[in-house]
Amino acid sequence: MLSALLALALAAETATPAPPPSARNPRNWPEPVMDTIPPKLPALKRGAVLILSKTNGFRDPEQIDAAKAVLVELVRKQGQDVFETENAAIMNPRDLARFSAVVLNSTSGNIFDERQRAAFQGWIEKGGGVVLLHGAGGDPQYDWSWYPQTLIGAQFIGHTGRPKQFQQGTIDIRDRTNPATRDLPERWTRTEEWYSFDKVPTGNDTRILATLDETSYEPYPERTRMGAVHPLIWTRCVGKGRIFFSALGHKAETYAEPLHQTMISGAIRWASRAEGGGC
User: Fold this and answer.
1) What are the tens digits of pLDDT across the range 260-277?
2) Nearest-angstrom CA–CA distance, 180 and 244
3) How many domains does the chain have?
4) Contact at 8 Å (CB) between 44 and 85?
5) What CATH number does the domain containing 64 carry?
């Protein structure tokens, strides 16, 4: 009897093998592709905005698509032309010269080759503006050290994890001089996957616009705790370029939040030099 049961168990195990623990869902981890031929650009007015949603790392399809639609609408409402793409080969001197700002919509992984990196960095240092949203600053490691160290100013180290990944928390708006935060409430309560970083960014004229009140939620796991100053939204200058980073926006529905849209709109106006000072 015992041997028969063991045989049945062995047969069942052989028929339905468990997937390896390292297997990744291709929906969220598509095969990386390096772009070499840039897209064809339409006629664009001066001050146009580029939205890049390229992912060679983690990808949340619903969030990417929801953010794309909202970003395009927000830019058009501001009277600016907009071009949206997932083709990273647009990072070349000729095409970048047609834009005043680039929005990185939860970009992830290694998406630029060496020439594209040089073109992007050079464009920023000469005065280009960049808005980095959520996953654009959320890789645990980067092949291009300039990106976390200089462009963002801090290295992402993790976020609140399961089963406490998404929690209600309160954001303290510390600096209201930027168009992105000027119209936000002093205490902004919302639900998010809360990001943490290895340090509070400094230098490069960094301004911390908003921080997370760690008493308003449970930092889990413990390594996600940063203490009294837990930055979430900040700006900095790289050469003559304006850099805006927001750790907000994991879920697709967050892009329908009026206050989140208010922040993003202001960030794009600031990065494209349509409003505000600095750098």
Assistant:
1) 999 999 999 999 999 999
2) 9
3) 1
4) no
5) 3.40.50.880
